[in-house]
Amino acid sequence: MNIAIDGPAGAGKSTIAKKVAAKLNFVYVDTGAMYRSIALYVIRNGADPDSEVDMANALDKIDVSIAYEDGTQHIFLNGEDVSTAIRQEEVGNMASKVATKAAVRAKLLDLQRNLAASQDVIMDGRDIGTFVLPQAEVKIYLTASVGERADRRYKELVEKGQTPDLEQIKKDIEARDYQDMHRDIAPLKQAEDAILIDSSDMTIDEVVGEIIRISKQV
After folding, report:
1. HSE of 173 in the Cβ direction (CA atoms, 13 Å)?
2. What are the φ and ψ backbone dihedral angles of 3, each rounded to 5 degrees?
3. Given phi > 0 = left and psi -120 to 50 = alpha, else beta, which region is 78?
């Protein structure tokens, strides 16, 4: 079985997907981490994400792979475990840019589909139900208000000892939403057969429970 969870930045897709995967004994595939890995390479090497030549050259030198250790997904960029490095805000914003590039999407698409074809997976992203796994048995569109998503991100950064600007976080989320929803290739949208879950007033466990309930009805 394949479960696809789509939705905007900061909706809690990864957190929810990991918990659902653990309860259903599915493999969790973090597609965002794949794009973040490419974004990290672009940042480190000064490549221009808007240059087809730069991106073609970069992709030729990038190898992204996934490994599971003690049930936890680790993402590797050219053999380096970048699971922590890719979580920086700068990398997330760059990932939204590189994800608009056809060459980047093509590089990762086969890896994602092969994982889904060989085992029970739950995959989250922007276009899983609409493009990557259009035949997924369960499709969820998980969202929350901009204010709620910004508050969650703010608290997350404070807990890490940072001093974030809440208004700037809101602006960044709005900008990423616009970019994700208006990109030329596989823009973020709710699939026709996806079930909408607005988590603004829900706890993580409530969302997890709802997705498991939906999955068991299939």
Report:
1. 23
2. -115, 125
3. left
